[in-house]
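Anyone up for a design puzzle?
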């Protein structure tokens, strides 16, 4: 991983920890989209911006587009990230967390997810990873 990806990853995690989760702009998928934008200059989630105002509307958007992994796959490849079968630090991931398909960032041993209750870190090896995408510098 390049030092640029590491610096964007660090800044993103700091932002997630000091700012609030907001359904319309800073939910798990939009937050991961901002990370990809900071790496590529392409907004992968522009078409969904503002489409969610609560959990019910987020679920409706996810269901209408085939779920979180499908949306993230389309968005991340559209921004130039490459799908990978083995995630590593700095990669965007989609994992099943409870009953939800949640976008997050691989930190290596752990992956971070921005949730309504705050940022959570879960052991990557214990997660059902539904997809992973890498920014290739």
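Challenge accepted. My sequence:
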């Amino acid at each position: 991983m390049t030092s640029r990806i590491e610096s964007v990853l660090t800044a993103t995690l700091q932002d997630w920890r000091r700012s609030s989760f907001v359904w319309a702009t800073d939910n798990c998928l939009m937050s991961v989209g901002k990370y990809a934008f900071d790496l590529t200059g392409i907004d992968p989630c522009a078409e969904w911006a503002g489409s969610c105002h609560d959990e019910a509307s987020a679920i409706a958007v996810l269901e209408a587009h085939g779920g979180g992994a499908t949306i993230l796959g389309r968005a991340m490849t559209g921004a130039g990230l490459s799908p990978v079968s083995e995630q590593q630090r700095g990669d965007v991931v989609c994992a099943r967390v409870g009953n939800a398909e949640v976008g997050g960032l691989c930190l290596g041993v752990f992956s971070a997810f921005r949730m309504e209750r705050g940022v959570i870190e879960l052991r990557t090896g214990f997660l059902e990873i539904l997809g992973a995408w890498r920014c290739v510098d």
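A detail worth pointing out: The two ends are 9 Å apart (CA to CA).
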